[in-house]
């Protein structure tokens, strides 16, 4: 299931997700203010170092993300999601079932219906009932 198009999709999704955090429209004037009085060569050197450090940090978390999460005791239990049939078994691709999340050692019913495609992507097919829990 792994291919270059999927990898590029992850890459661009990551860049788009980081844009609000990095905020280049505010970072550029801030960088210019911090390096005021420096030569152009010094500014380029500082910008290159900043980019290198950012890439090194992102790549280290990409490679060792699971290790860091476990080391610091951070867990995200809602990331384990599955579409199941009425018997509680995973459904094959394109078969509609109930979307469930793994919480506290058991599958939690969301009362949402959905299916997966052949690549494992989830699709929402509506509510299983008319009750909305708020």
Number of strands: 4
Net shape: elongated
Low-pLDDT segments: none
Computed structural class:
alpha+beta
Element order, helices and strands? Answer: HHHEEEE
**Spatial separation of the terminal alpha carbons:** 37 Å
Strand count, sense and closure of the main sheet? 4 strands, antiparallel
Number of helices: 3
Q: Helical content, roughly? A: 40-55%
Query: How much beta, percentage-wise?
Result: 15-25%
Strand line-up across the major sheet: 1-2-3-4
Work out the radius of gyration: 22 Å
**Mean pLDDT score:** 85
Keywords, please?
134 residues; alpha+beta; elongated
Which helices and strands appear, and what pairs or packs with what?
Blueprint lengths: L3 H19 L1 H11 L5 H32 L9 E4 L12 E7 L2 E11 L5 E6 L7
Antiparallel strand pairs: 1-2, 2-3, 3-4
Description of the structure:
- The structure is a single chain.
- With 134 residues, this protein is of the alpha+beta class.
- Helices cover 46% and strands 21% of the residues.
- It has a four-stranded antiparallel β-sheet with strand order 1-2-3-4, with no helix packed on it.
- It is elongated, with a radius of gyration of 22 Å.
């Amino acid at each position: 299931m792994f291919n270059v198009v999927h990898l590029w999709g992850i890459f661009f999704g990551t860049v788009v997700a980081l844009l609000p955090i990095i905020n280049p429209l505010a970072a550029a004037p801030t960088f210019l203010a911090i390096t005021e009085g420096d030569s152009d060569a010094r500014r380029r050197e500082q910008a290159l170092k900043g980019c290198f450090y950012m890439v090194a940090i992102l790549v280290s978390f990409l490679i060792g993300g699971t290790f860091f999460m476990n080391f610091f005791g951070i867990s995200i239990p809602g990331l384990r999601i599955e579409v199941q049939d009425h018997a509680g078994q995973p459904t094959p691709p394109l078969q509609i079932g109930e979307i469930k999340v793994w919480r506290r050692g058991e599958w939690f019913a969301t009362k949402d219906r959905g299916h997966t495609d052949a690549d494992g992507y989830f699709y929402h097919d509506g509510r299983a009932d008319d009750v909305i829990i708020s």
